[in-house]
Amino acid sequence: LFVDGANGNVGLGDGVPGTMLQVSGASAYLTLKNTSAEFGEGEAETKIIFEDHSDTTLAQIQASHDGGVDDTKGDLIFSTHNNVALTEALRLDSAQLATFAGNVTISGGVINLTNGMTIDSTTNGTLLLTEPIVKTSGDLQVGGNDIKASDGTTSITLNGADASVAGDL
């Protein structure tokens, strides 16, 4: 343990910490442990809180118990402040499901749907695809409607009617 009184920095395993708290070593892990025996949804929580000069929480990362049973299921919750209140933005639950509170923007890369995964836009709004879709086998289903290429030609069936396609599908 090293305390740099001149700069206000603390080093764990580091004699010259470059930040207020620096942990250095081959197993540089940080553990936050809630010692309460709690098993309800959102209980046994630990948090990393990010504040500004006015003591307002701008963002927060929380790990907590997922569900209401005495087990070891956990979730990870990311919250941001929207100028009114700290609001949950993303939740990763114990089933590895991600729930986003707002829109999701993916800039670049590829979205791979495997193991029977689907894109469903039937419950809320419109699905807008602005880049080419490549699907090599099976049907691509969007809201229960097939989009498929067959016999070397492109055919699209939406709500039981054929539609024309300009460009690649």
| Overall spatial form | extended
CA distance, first residue to last residue: 60 Å
**DSSP strand tally:** 12
Helix content: under 10%
Spatial extent as radius of gyration: 24 Å
Question: What does the model show?
Answer:
The chain has 169 residues and is an all-beta fold. Helices cover 0% and strands 36% of the residues. It is built from no helices and 12 strands. A 5-stranded antiparallel sheet has the order 4-5-6-7-8, with no helix packed on it. Strands 9-10-11-12 form a 4-stranded antiparallel sheet, with no helix packed on it. It has a 3-stranded mixed sheet with strand order 1-2-3, with no helix packed on it. The chain is extended, with a radius of gyration of 24 Å. The N and C termini lie far apart (60 Å).
Structure in a nutshell:
With 169 residues, this protein is mostly beta strands. The chain has no helices and twelve strands. A hairpin with a 4-residue loop joins β6 (74-81) and β7.
Descriptors:
extended, 5-stranded antiparallel beta sheet, 4-stranded antiparallel beta sheet, mainly beta, 169 residues
Topology (SSEs and partners):
Elements: E1 2-4, E2 9-12, E3 21-23, E4 46-51, E5 57-65, E6 74-81, E7 86-92, E8 98-100, E9 140-142, E10 145-150, E11 153-158, E12 161-163
Parallel strand pairs: 2-3
Antiparallel strand pairs: 1-2, 4-5, 5-6, 6-7, 7-8, 9-10, 10-11, 11-12
